[in-house]
Amino acid sequence: MSRRAVVIGAGLAGMLAAAALSTVVDEVVVLESDELPGGPEHRKGLPQGRHAHLLMAGGLAAMEDLVPGVGMRKHLLAAGAREVSLSSGMIALTPEGWFRRWRHEGPQMLTCSRALLDWAVRDAVLTHTDVTVRQGRVAELTGGAARVEGVRVSTAAGDEELTADFVVDASGRGSRVVTWLAGLGISGIEEKSVDAGLVNATRVYRTPEGADRFPLTIVQANPYLSRPGRSGMVMPIEGDRWMVSLAGTRGGGEPPSDPEGFLQYTLDLPDPIVGRLISGAEPLTDIHVSRSTSNHRRYLEKSRQWPERFVVLGDALATFNPAYGQGMAVAALGAGVLGRELAAGTGVTAPGLARRVQRGAAASVNAAWTMAVSQDVWFPGTRGGAPTAADRLVTKYTRRLIRTATGSYRAASALWDVTSLNSGPERLLRPGAVLATLGGPPLPPAVGAPLTPSEREVLRGLDRTGVR
């Protein structure tokens, strides 16, 4: 008997879920409301698509085995993505000081434009599996509260009902899953939003001659000053380009969209290094601004009822403030949960499969959600959350850990494991991390960005600001 799976959404989560499903069903149809570009180009269905994205090590590891016959790390690097070591390939000013750079290797992350990443993943899936993509907008789920049996989809040719043995909603932050579930008779879905009012502004520059090896550079926002947060990043991407993304919270921290204001914003950050770098670089694009940045979570795993043969993944399940760079990794981890359950050989119609995947995907969300929300609640004007007594206790420990990590490899490696989603937050409470944190940093604070002599020469050569 032929089996069909339907995936709603052709973004990262949708294509990875489709790849996992392709190994156990006869047909996988991906439904996408956007017209998909034929190459690494921006599309309107990705509101944050023009801004900086980081693919953390945990997410990349989850992707490695999802597409049959394709090593995704090699595939993405061949497409133009860059690999950056958290321990040595990045300089970062945190609220607790500059991170040092270590000779020991740390977790790797990939940097590229979101357009390249989505296209490269989609290309790999469509080339190496029998997955097909159709344009259409899903109007509702079919079936009932006990089991989803397909979708009703609107296309240019009219409405049709598409039956399926398994359905995945990966339609992104605009998902209508709560409405769809209500149509099946499932209500009472718990949702939560925490919105710091973050605004992103991004411009792409040509990488200056001689600066192709300059490290990824971040000046982080400080949520503990009772004033709007401001941050900036220079990130290497494909095509010998720098993506420069600024981010600021409501109430006066929002970055401007004009070139002069954009540069001045970078110079007014706690350290002007981002502005000094781009002052001598050639801009290639206009400045793109977006505001779809809130943390939003649907606690689907807590629903008393859950239909068989239906799973929600990626941004349809949870979205995060993009400043923390974890959304793509969480989407990949969720698809990885689906892949592992399917690899167990129970088949898409097995009782309880959907509930197990939904709970497993929620576990992947927890660490990223805690990390993002525990920071955002401290910014003034944040809507949907405020620091609790527990938040204050956790923040006190976390700030001490980060301060220690500026001069302790042991503390830094624990922090990298969590931010990379290689480990959950419990990694920060292991004896080695706790002892390091209690002892404090063994090295004195770094005075200025930890640049090599050649990197300092690059910075001096680019600087047109006169700021030091």
From TrEMBL:
Sorted UniProt keywords: Signal
Extent of the signal sequence: 1-19
Tagged with keyword Transport: no
Superkingdom of the organism of origin: Bacteria
Keyword Iron: no
Listed Gene3D superfamilies: FAD/NAD(P)-binding domain
Alphabetical list of Pfam families matching this protein: FAD_binding_3
InterPro entries per the UniProt record, alphabetical: FAD-bd (IPR002938), FAD/NAD-bd_sf (IPR036188)
Domain FAD-binding: 5-344
Name recorded for this polypeptide: FAD-dependent oxidoreductase
Species whose genome carries this gene: Streptomyces vulcanius
Lineage, opening ranks: Bacteria, Bacillati, Actinomycetota, Actinomycetes, Kitasatosporales
